[in-house]
Design goal:
Blueprint lengths: L2 H10 L5 E6 L5 E4 L7 H10 L4 H6 L1 E3 L2 E8 L3 E6 L2 E7 L3 E7 L5 H17 L3
Antiparallel strand pairs: 1-2, 1-7, 3-4, 4-5, 5-6, 6-7
């Protein structure tokens, strides 16, 4: 399966409206949907946040110019919320999954979908 199929499958779930797959270092985009790309500093800040979330917790998570309040940040997952929408990001062995869910979708529904894909990627050494 191509990397693009993973982001397409997230969007096809109906709970995610945009998704991207980056290298673990955040230095290259492997797949994206709906032009869901980030400025270099945004993805580098996200990638660094898995090892030290203090900057994200203090200043928020910025993606596509939007600031998200960080509601979870650890060495695997970083979740952000802005009004009724949010982002779910998960780091695997080789990738960073980033998914956006729109207003009307419960955060738990979106996180379950993204975390399950991350579990699968980890199980196949990605």
């Amino acid at each position: 399966m191509s990397w693009q199929a993973y982001t397409d499958n997230l969007v096809a779930s109906g709970k995610i409206d945009k998704a991207a797959l980056y290298s673990r270092a955040g230095d290259s985009v492997w797949a994206q949907s709906n032009n869901f790309t980030f400025a270099d500093q945004e993805i580098k800040s996200l990638a660094a946040g898995y090892d030290d979330p203090s900057g994200l917790q203090a200043g928020g998570l910025h993606l596509q110019g939007q600031k998200y309040f960080v509601i979870r940040a650890d060495d695997r997952s970083i979740y952000g919320k802005h009004e009724a929408e949010g982002v779910v990001t998960v780091r695997t062995k080789q990738t960073i999954l980033v998914a956006h869910y729109p207003a009307g979708v419960q955060a738990g529904e979106a996180t379950t979908i993204v975390e399950k894909l991350a579990d699968y990627l980890i199980s196949v050494n990605f």
